[in-house]
Amino acid sequence: MGWLTCGRARDVVADAKCLDELFEEPRSLAAAPTDVTLEIEETAAPPPEAEEAREAGMVVAVRLRPCDGDAATAVDGDDVTVSGRAFGPFDATLGPGGDQAAAFAAVGAGVVARVLEGFHGCVMAYGATGSGKTHSVCAGRDGLLARACAALFDGLGGAPATVSATCVELYLDGIRDLLAAPNDENRAAALSPARSNSPAPAPRKAAAPRRPAIREDPARGVFLEGVERREVAGAADALRLFRAGARRRAARSTAKNEASSRSHAVYTLEVSRDVDGATVASKLHVVDLAGSERLDESKVSGAGAREAARINASLSALGNVVAALEKRRAHVPYRDSNLTRLLQDSLGGSSYTAVLCCVHPGASEAANATATLRFASRLRSVTTKPRKNVDPKDAEIARLRAANAALAREVARLTARLA
Fold it and tell me: H/E element holding 417?
């Protein structure tokens, strides 16, 4: 896509690890003569809001994790093949032999650059359970999240800015604040790893926690109300918060994954700073989606089966939204799930978005690989209309100042001619 500032990336390793092993520490105007007619040519740059929103396609990359046995999925140039059937082309195809830097170059670097320019941005990892999504997003200092934090603060370069972090999960399609004080024992029990077939823990009465809510505002777009927003001073500070939040995320051991994520996690950095006299507020989402799951493969039951059903339902809602956007339908069913509601701006709104579709290339995973690649192909047709997020009052002040400066220059020029 035209807005992607990085080069082609290839050969990236995806090595699934337990959640507990992830998230290591990182890094006065003069009077004009009354007999002179002023012909003013404004040369000042237009205020930020004067830039019209232009369509931008999603950046879509496909990443294959390592496979010990027979493989049915392989990279073939810009395409990916499953048992000989080709899908693509994609913006980047990442094989099972490189490093995490290539994954960030493919989907992260360009988005962060746009966030630094004042646009919203979203980096998302999608795929079936066990395909390497959480490793891609969260693995130590090399994951997309750590690299995005580092790139954002490096890009700010010490310039005055306020950066705050939020961290939420969507568990059973409910929104839970992972940075809030753990004052609800029911929630703590629900988030603890459990055996796949163990019964849900008995609830205990506790004070009702503050419930986050999704809100929408013409200026701010879709946002979360009632969540902890922690100001952070640097990348290491942000990553410490995100690591603490990730440890409270719902996880469960299944037949396919020792620490299977049972929720969608959304890590967000909100940036506010002064640009040419106007307040610009942008945000970066890094989203680790839970994987689609088949009960006959994961072997879960009881609470685990209910989790899987809600995960699959929310991913189905995501698929329906993407299908509606692809076909440019008048109605897009964002409100069918909290996941699609929260990501509305990222999917079809005012954000630059890049998606890393993770695939297990094993022969036994061919059906999951095919489903993921079909979804990736649909994403290639989806566009958003990014716009800079400038405070309207500040933008008007900036416009008037620019006009005033142009007047002053013209007065000075004419005064010099009459002298």
Answer: helix 392-418
Each residue of 116-143: pLDDT tens digit? 999 999 999 999 999 999 999 998 788 9
Nearest to 372 by CA among 137, 126, 135: 126
Provide the token pair at 16: 């699934």
The helix/strand/coil state of 394 is: helix
Which CATH number covers residue 131?
3.40.850.10
The DSSP symbol for 68 reads: S
Q: For position 278, what pLDDT does the model report?
A: 80
CA 144, 149, 153, 154 torsion-angle sign: negative
- 19 has a pLDDT exceeding 70: no
Residue 202 host element (H or E): none
Tell me whether strands 120-127 and 59-64 are parallel, antiparallel or unpaired. Answer: unpaired
Has residue 308 been placed in a domain? yes
DSSP label at 353?
Answer: E
How far apart, in whole angstroms, are the C-alpha atoms of residue 380 and residue 373? Answer: 11
Q: At what angle do helices 235-247 and 144-156 cross, to 10 degrees?
A: 150
- Residue 156's H or E segment, with its range, is helix 144-156
| Residue 174 vs residue 206, higher pLDDT | 174
pLDDT of the residue at 188: 44
Give the pair of three-digit tokens for residue 330.
Answer: 């008048």
CA geometry: angle 311, 196, 65, nearest 5 deg? 60
Question: Which amino acid, one-letter code, is at 182?
Answer: P
Q: Confirm whether 223 is domain-assigned.
A: yes
DSSP 382: -
Q: How far apart are the first and last CA of the chain?
A: 55
Beta-sheet pairing, 120-127 with 278-288: parallel
Does 96 fall in a domain?
Answer: yes
Alpha helices in 248-343 (DSSP H): 295-298, 303-326, 338-342
Asked, for residue 389, whether it belongs to a domain, the answer is: no
Q: Which residue range is the domain that position 145 belongs to?
A: 19-27+58-198+208-382
Task: Give the containing element (helix H, strand E) for 284.
Answer: strand 278-288
Using DSSP, state whether 146 is helix, strand or coil: helix
Q: What is the pLDDT of residues 84-114, one digit of tens each?
A: 999 999 999 999 976 899 999 999 999 999 9
Percent of the residues in the chain that have a pLDDT greater than 70, as a whole number: 79
Neighbours of 170 (CB within 10 A): 25
